[in-house]
Amino acid sequence: MSETEYHVPVLLGEVLELLVGGGDMAQPSIKDSRKVYVDGTLGGGGHFRAVAGALSGRDGAGECVVIGIDRDREALDNVRRGGLGGTGAKVILEQSRFSEFDSVLRKHGIDRVAGLLVDLGVSSRQIDAPGRGFMYMRDAPLDMRMDQGGGLTAAEFLEHSDEGELALVFEKYGEIRNARRMAGVIKDYMRQKKILTSADLKDCLTREYGANLKIQVFAKLFQALRIAVNGELEELRLFLDKSVRWLAEGGRIAVISYHSLEDRMVKEFFRAAEGACVCDPGLPVCNCNRPVLLKRVNRKAVTASDEEITLNPRSRSARLRVAERTKEACL
Ligand SMILES: C[S@@+](CC[C@H](N)C(=O)[O-])C[C@H]1O[C@@H](n2cnc3c(N)ncnc32)[C@H](O)[C@@H]1O
């Protein structure tokens, strides 16, 4: 399987432009000549290879390091199989969660980076691979773990969560209306019969909702389960909280999100790090004096062009936000 079939990278040109540089909004001056970039979501390696490639022709490319992290061993093996030579920069691959990128940096003796990138969610390969259980259109065991080396599968998550917990997950991550009823239907069914596969889950829901069960609802349910099983929002929260400390002055953080909850988290984090006042609006003057740690590179999220959406429909919901560490951020 070629890299393109594995996963087509989204907003590739925009990520290169805003993270590594080239145009007007390029990183002005990273103090450290030994530039280090971290791609926390390696996937098919599209962004990773492009970043490494973009550094190649530059002065000091041999001093640059590009680190690719993924929690899915299969993704790392696939990129290794594709070969890692010829970029000029040093490349490192590590199996880890991106929320633990700091441990990877410490392991390699790195204390500042020029760029941090995460492209959230799952790769096309993970969705399409039978046996991973991400696809609701086909019958497969309900696994949905990005890292199959540990943690609860989606089937175990359904088994171990009570009705209230499931309802919360369906409502919050899937925006499912009447999530409580759906959680109740699932728990009732499980008192008679186990839910181990996507066909079991479909059977459970069609018994209750019949022909009224829309495929979109099933898709939302799968999305909610996936986010919960992989702790995706907690991962993003931890990653953002750690990010500023590790960025060199002028270093940039780029996040591509596909879910409104994630995009809101990134937007609010950047705003707060930019020193947005949190004083009571009733106060005559601001007294919170929040430091300006980051400066937003793009105020509005960057979205895919019509052309990209036609070529790669997955890019439709992508939203890229980039921010740069300021001089004031004395950490
Ligand atoms: C959308 S794909 C990334 C695609 C990649 N940018 C490319 O160009 O091919 C998301 C990847 O991130 C990985 N991933 C998601 N959450 C992760 C996390 N918290 N830590 C590490 N890897 C994660 C998934 O396993 C998947 O391979």
What strand line-up does the widest sheet have? Answer: 3-2-1-4-5-7-6
C-alpha-based Rg, rounded:
21 Å
Question: What name does CATH use for the topology of the largest domain?
Answer: Rossmann fold
The proportion of residues forming helix, as a percent range, comes to 40-55%
Helix and strand string, N-terminal first? Answer: HHEHEHEHEHHHHHHHEHEHE
Q: How many domain units?
A: 2
Structural category is: alpha/beta
User: Roughly what fraction of the amino acids lie in strands?
Assistant: 5-15%
Cofactors and ligands present?
S-adenosylmethionine
Task: Report the major sheet.
Answer: 7 strands, mixed
Total count of helical runs of at least 4 residues: 14
The rounded distance between the terminal residues' Cα atoms is: 44 Å
Oligomer state of the chains in this structure: single chain
Which segments are poorly predicted (pLDDT under 50) over 5 or more consecutive residues? none
CATH class label of the largest domain: Alpha Beta
Overall geometry = globular
* CATH-level-2 architecture of the largest domain: 3-Layer(aba) Sandwich
Explain this structure to me?
The protein is of the alpha/beta class and 331 residues long. It has two domains: 3-125 and 232-325, 3-Layer(aba) Sandwich (Rossmann fold); 147-229, Orthogonal Bundle (DNA polymerase, domain 1), CATH 1.10.150. The chain contains 14 helices and seven strands. The protein has helices spanning 3-6, 12-20, 46-56, 73-82, 101-107, 124-128, 154-160, 163-174, 179-192, 198-209, 215-229, 232-246, 260-273, 306-311, and strands spanning 36-39, 65-70, 90-95, 113-119, 247-257, 294-296, 319-325. The protein has a seven-stranded mixed beta sheet, with helices on both faces. Strand 2, helix 4 and strand 3 (90-95) form a beta-alpha-beta unit. Helix 8 (163-174) crosses helix 9 (179-192), helix 9 packs across helix 10 and helix 12 runs parallel beside helix 13. The longest helix has 15 residues, at 215-229. The radius of gyration is 21 Å and the shape is globular. The protein starts with a helix and ends in a 6-residue tail after the last strand. The chain binds S-adenosylmethionine. The site of S-adenosylmethionine has 23 residues, from helix 3 and strand 2.
